[in-house]
Amino acid sequence: MDDRFSKPKSVGEILDHTFTLSRNHFKKFMTVLLSIMGPVYLIDALFQVGAGKPLFRDKSGEGDWFEQMMASFEGSGEVDPSFMTAEFVGIGVTALLSLFLFPIAQAAILFAVNHVRKNEEYTVGSVFKLALSRYWAMLGSSILYFLMAIAFITIPTIGIVAGGMIGGLFNDATGIILTVIGSIGLFLVVVLLLTRFSFYFGSVVLDRKSPGLGRSWKLTKKRTWKLLGIYIVFSLITTIISASVEMAFTAFLGSSVLLSVIISLVSILTTMFFSVGYCVIYLDLKVRNEADDLKELLSEYEPLSS
Predict the structure, then answer these.
(1) Are 109 and 29 in contact (CB under 8 A)?
(2) Omega into 211 within 30° of 0, i.e. cis?
């Protein structure tokens, strides 16, 4: 077994381990994701081509290079209705495929990282089959998680709006202040709660325990702010990469199918990085939890022995 997985890590060590795994196993991890997510993006690209979207770049615009580049960001004013119809159909088809295949792709990466942890060989087919076997459990748990998220947001929001309206009866400033404070408080509480429950996915996939929400709550005890910070760092890294690539290539390719393909490839790359990081964090939480459980057993045993 890889020793780095068996020791509790700091935030820096988690990031370093994620980068190391992503770099050392880049080819295999990307092959897994390309095999599962690639067909979805390919179908989307074919729908765009069929709808008449330019393959490389729309060169029909006039003006110098700078004007054409700005036009690429702004887009054209008129849209062909048939193009819009084909676009909507493509979006619908790819959305349905994504709902089925993307969770499987993320689960497959978790299984792949777990194989690396155990120094075991694996293939795309083997991790795909393992992920597919957990699909319904993943789907059911994810639906429950999102319903909880909706409840966390909706119920307090009603209270905040009601409080703001009541405060507004006395003074407009009071209503605004209550609403702002309540909104900030709601945001923090919701983010922290969703962070604590977010490791249900690892429990469902790797430990085969569904829905995994209770286990996630236990694993994240006293570590919520640290985990939220790691999530923010991962999100910033993936967002910066995606935005930078999209802006750079949009300037030269405009609104073309090739641009869409490049953005899709970057999306697969960031999905790999985020999924590997998520797995590293989950396995780290398990190591810490097992250590905490051992300490509790020892503390219970000591009075008996004395």
Answers:
(1) yes
(2) yes
Q: What angle do CA 100, 106, 110 make, to 5 degrees?
A: 140
- Under DSSP, the state recorded for 220 is T
- Tokens 């930078």, residue? 244
Residue with tokens 């890294």, as numbered in its chain? 237
pTM of the model: 0.81
| Cβ(103)–Cβ(138) below 8 Å | yes
First-to-last CA distance in the chain?
37
pLDDT digits (tens, 9 = 90+) for 71-119: 544 544 444 555 556 666 667 777 888 888 889 999 999 999 999 998 8
- Report the C-alpha gap between 36 and 189 in whole angstroms: 35
Residue 14 and residue 280 in contact, taking contact as beta carbons nearer than 8 Å: yes
Taking the CA atoms of residue 70, residue 76, residue 82 and residue 85 in that order, the dihedral angle to the nearest 10 degrees is 60
